[in-house]
Amino acid sequence: MGLLENKTALITGADSGIGRAIAIEFAKEGANVVVCFYSDEKGGNETLDTVKSHSTGKATLIQLDVSDEGAIEQNFEQIIKDFSGIDILVNNSGVNGSGIPVDEMETETFDKTIKTNLYGTFFCSRKFVQHRKAVGIPGKIINISSVHEEVNSPGNADYNASKAGIQNLMRTLALEVAPFGINVNNIAPGMILTPMNQEAIDDPAKRKEAEKHIPMARAGRPEEIAYLALFLASPQADYVTGSTYVMDGGLMINLGQGA
């Protein structure tokens, strides 16, 4: 359909899972795609190869540590030069929760999660907004958050806090940049079959047990998140901003049952 033709999208954490699925879906719709990875260069190249096979646009691969403010500045400037701008930013890169209770958690553990998940979203979004305002052209920011921006789980205070922070960062930023035609939204996935849920992929019994809490009785697929991201990146969502779109098979509305 070419919904994103002549648009350039930068997708962090695109070496696997949800980020990879979004990169591929955007490529199918004609976008130029910047595939970002942190440590998995092999996975990044696999995404890049698939993107190139689906797109008539340009595609490139870069290593990016989203927790490094200087790296964000340098890489964004180079990408803007190479692609004549960035139209769509997908903040997908993130780390999982530590599984450590608050009273046992080291400061360094908390810092790592917050720096990657929350600061990374802040650094990338700030640079993107500066760029779009400078050129005077609207743009789209899509954050891949989590149901844990609302639902808490014990042992994951670092992750829960980072995702709740992303929710309010998104809402505040949406208010600030709406006059410039820049849309900012979150997608909050539930249980999706990605490397972050590798245990559920590898162990059918554990996966089935987890799926008992999901009204639709199954985990989600990365490409399902990508379809929603495509809508939010497209002109069809030009009037959508400041919202979180939960995609969890009904998990969140089911958690209170039996109370």
List the helices and strands and how they pair.
Elements: E1 8-11, H1 17-28, E2 32-37, H2 41-54, E3 59-63, H3 69-83, E4 88-91, H4 107-135, E5 139-144, H5 157-177, E6 182-189, H6 198-202, H7 204-211, H8 222-233, E7 244-247, H9 251-254
Parallel strand pairs: 1-2, 1-4, 2-3, 4-5, 5-6, 6-7
In short:
The chain is an alpha/beta fold and about 260 residues long. The protein has helices at about 15-30, 40-55, 70-85, 105-135, 155-175, 200, 205-210, 220-235, 250-255, and strands at about 10, 30-35, 60-65, 90, 140-145, 180-190, 245.
Features:
single chain; about 260 residues; alpha/beta; seven-stranded parallel sheet; 9 helices; about 45% helix; about 15% strand
Residue-averaged pLDDT: 94
Terminus-to-terminus distance: 46 Å
Helix/strand/pairing category: alpha/beta
Number of strands: 7
The helix content, as a percent range, equals: 40-55%
Q: Can you tell me the overall shape?
A: globular
Describe the structure.
The chain is an alpha/beta fold and 259 residues long. The chain has helices spanning 17-28, 41-54, 69-83, 107-135, 157-177, 198-202, 204-211, 222-233, 251-254; strands at residues 8-11, 32-37, 59-63, 88-91, 139-144, 182-189, 244-247. It is built from 9 helices and 7 strands. Strand 4, helix 4 (107-135) and strand 5 form a beta-alpha-beta unit. The protein is globular, with a radius of gyration of 18 Å.
